[in-house]
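look at this record:
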Amino acid sequence: MSNPHAALAAIIEHHQATILNSWLQQQLAVTSLRRDPTRDSILRDQSAQFLGLFIQALKSPHGGNFADSVWDEIRELLKAVSRSRVQQGFTPSETATFVFSLKELLFTLVLSNLDGDSDQRIPLLMQVSSLLDQLGLYTTEVYQQSREQIIGNQQQELLELSTPVVSLYDGILALPLIGTLDSERTQIVMENLLQGIVNTEASIAIIDITGVPTVDTLVAQHLLKTVAAARLMGAECIISGIRPQIAQTIVHLGVDLGGVATKATLADAFKLALKRRNLGIYALTK
């Protein structure tokens, strides 16, 4: 036979229905897998599609090369399986089971169909092992990439949620910061603040650092960049939340805040903002 993988494809295709049922039982026997009728139906469809694509790829003259385009469809299927399982909270082991649970079945099938023909059995068994190992590894890699992407998206969402821009009064914004202020977060802080200035046409922005645990040279630089960006948009900044230890640190580091007004509390900063807008506390009751 010119295609060395055609024999394996023929065996699998001949016993496809039996393999599918046994394979499903193998997968569902894993106690940690989540069970419900909808998922069982999806798993059956995915398994049936995998077997069909697996046979189709093996029939190709290039079926032995996993990097070849004949495996593109099965790679796309494994991507979909891995990504959906990440979203459903499956572990890497549970996800890899989709592929690796098929290995023992195919080993048994090859041995039973080529009984006594060791010259043909050994190459086929090696083919099965090699191909499923590559498919399983690919599944795990996609799972890891998908999980990292989801975690990255969640971190981005948390960063955005942790930097809310609050309108305190007409023309006055507040940006309360909580946690560490690094380069990535500074970019989000700056974008949110500038967008808030544009949306509300604010002339004063209060950056409250009460929730920032420490202020070092790098944090101070990040704050000054944010202040400079706000000034370019026509808004003056006031930094509040300057605790005694933070004040001492800034002085010790020799950080020049560039004439930016600072206050110990957000309330004090708000009073200053009202004063600079020629407003008094009484204006809030009107």
